[in-house]
Each structure stands twice: as C-alpha cells, then as structure tokens.
Amino acid sequence: MGSQNLEGLRHQIRHIQQEAADLTAGLTEEQFNWRPSPGQWSIEECLAHLTIVGQWEIRAIEEAIDDGRTRGMTGTEPFRYGAIDQLVVDLTAATGPDGKPRQRFPAPRRFVPAHGQPLTAVLPTFQHLQRQFQIQMERAEGLDLARVKVKTPLSRFLRMSLGMMFAQAVAHEERHLAQARRVRERI
What we know:
The chain has helices at about 5-25, 30, 45-70, 85-95, 120-140, 160-185, and strands at about 150, 160. By secondary structure, it is mainly α. Helix 1 (about 5-25) runs parallel beside helix 6. The chain starts with 5 loop residues before the first helix and ends with a helix. Strands 1-2 form a two-stranded antiparallel sheet. The chain is globular and about 50 Å long. A hairpin with a 7-residue loop joins strand 1 (about 150) and strand 2 (about 160).
C-alpha cells in the first residue's frame, strides 16, 4: 500500500463508483451484455465478477476487523507490509503500456458470473458493494492494518494483512473496470 492510507483507498472507491456509473450510462441491455468475442467478458460480466468476488472479500474483511477489535490489535501508520502481500497487490495491479494486464489470471469457477444479467440489477448491487467497502474501511480505522489478517479468495492457506487486502480489492476493481472500458470503446 506504500503511502496509501484508508482515506486514499476510500477516495479510490468513490472514483470506482463514479467510473462504473459513467461506463454504463446510456447503455442498452444489449450493449451492457455484449461480448467482443466468445472468450471475452461483457461490461456486465466484469461488474458482476467484481461483485461476486467483492462480496466474498467483504465477509472476510468484516470477520478480520471483528477479530482485530476483539484482540485489541490497534496501531498507527506507517504500517510495514510483507513481501507476499505486496506481490499479490502488484500482480493484481500490473498493467502494460497499453493499459492491459501484464498477467492474466483465469477466474476460479465460483467467481465466474452468469452472462445476461440486467443492468438494473448489476449496477446497483455493484454500487452497494462499494459502499460496503467504504464502511469496512471506516470500521478499520485505528487497527494495525499490517497485523490484522484476512482470509483470501485465492487460497485457504493465504492470509493477507487488512491494509493490503483493501489495496488488492481496489486494484482488482480498477483492473476489471479498465477491461470494461475497453469493451465500451468497441461498442
């Protein structure tokens, strides 16, 4: 997370909310669900995927915050994060000069969204999720963001620090919003 703090991450979440609204503004259902090719996701699938993953992350973050509060794991910035945490965030965020991800990761089956969902269901649910991230960031204030650990959707063995889990969630959302933006440009 480097110099990023919770306020910086909350600002990024607000930007993500606005970007999702802008990305979907004026789209028909057909455009929202249009796939550039059979192997690529539509804007709908990008947002639905982020919602599925984000809902899993929110539950894990809530549990970690509750546990951190119960255990009195408070702290102040600057926090020192481990190399594995930083690697996960860097891999999630890494893009090339064309704005496309340098590393592609197939979504685990449980995080692959259904195709053909309506804009009126996907966008409000995605926006609600962003508010949940903001609430959890507020709840995390005063905790030691490096010592409080969160389960990850990547592996049952991998736990990330709370601060880096927030950073990874934001990077993941930005990555798929960029993907959705590329689809929008082709519509």
